[in-house]
What we know:
The complex is a heterodimer.
Chain A: H1 11-25, E1 32-36, E2 51-54, H2 60-70, E3 75-81, H3 82-88, H4 90-99, E4 104-109, E5 112-113, E6 119-120, H5 144-151, E7 155-160, H6 164-176, E8 181-186, H7 202-211, E9 213-215, H8 216-224, E10 234-241
Parallel strand pairs in A: 1-2, 1-3, 3-4, 4-8, 7-8, 9-10
Antiparallel strand pairs in A: 5-6, 7-10
Helix pairs in contact in A: 1-6, 3-4, 4-5
Chain B: E1 2-5, H1 15-19, E2 25-26, E3 40-41, H2 48-56, H3 63-67, E4 73-76
Antiparallel strand pairs in B: 1-4, 2-3
Domain 4Fe-4S ferredoxin-type (chain B): 1-30
GO molecular function (chain B): oxidoreductase activity
InterPro entries (chain B): 4Fe4S_Fe-S-bd, 4Fe4S_Fe_S_CS
Amino acid sequence: MPHIFCTGCGNGTVINCTLNAVVEMGWEIDDTIFISGIGCSSRAPGYVATDSLHTTHGRALAFATGVKMAKPDFNVVVFTGDGDLSAIGGNHFIHACRRNIDITVVCMNNMIYGMTGGQGSPCTPSGAFSTTTPYGASEPVFDLAELAVAAGANYVARWTTYHVKELTKAIKAGMETPGLSFIESVTQCPTSFGRRNKQRQPSDMIDHMKTHTILLSKKKRLEEAGQKVPDDYFAVGEFARRNRPVMGVKNK
Amino acid sequence: MKLIIDESRCKGCNLCTLVCPYNIFQEGSELNSKGIVVPSLDRPGRCTNCRLSKLYQRRLCGVCQLICPDQAIHWVEEEPYEPLGVVIEF
């Protein structure tokens, strides 16, 4: 400390929430492992005083699977970004969800490749500008939480860095749930994303998250009533909590 | 309990001013030695929850500490208030 994240970067907030959840769970330093891939978000385990693995691009979940299989007693938490998880590590993510390994995945979705200069990622909203989408992104957005639900994760939630209390609770619930728990945190990136999209100040991006989120239950209710939810709104809340067969937990 | 902003860690993103429900944090106006505008605290540096947490066993809301990306905000314990400890000079 002070760490390398830019002014107003939401990754520090997600670290705070995760560490608070770890403290509430009462995990020991010696049997907790933080794993990350490559990117801004993946700098996080370096600032935590536990064992940590900084692995190759997109392979954080593959390394985490190995750690969990070798040491089923350890608590494994994976920090990863949207480009790391969904673009390069997409297949690892799908199959980790399918196998339902007992790890907690915290995805900091800042909608861009932040560290390498702001290229568009699969999560870049349509119409947003980045260095590889100078006329506005035209591709549809990858909804990571829905993907995790479809692939079979046991606990799936999505919150933003504005909803810090809910994010902490969701991470804690994910740590308590056996099986793969996936918590997506929509994070602001004022330096690479906001600068090109008229949200230069960190507070502008937080305001955007505050006004453009809708609770999942409310969204479902609106859709049942036949009302239309605007396209730029995204749902937050708990997407799934279930008891599918789990891999990587020691049989007692 | 009193709020403290660690100036060596703060990067001046002003997220605490945005989320505090008691408006304890205000946007600063002067550059510090590192060239960063650190948010200024309300004069006593205490919000309603900080002040009353001991008295009523209230839980701190702690949103400022949770949202601070640079881990710059923390609390310090204070001496309890003593009415006879005030020295009046004539």
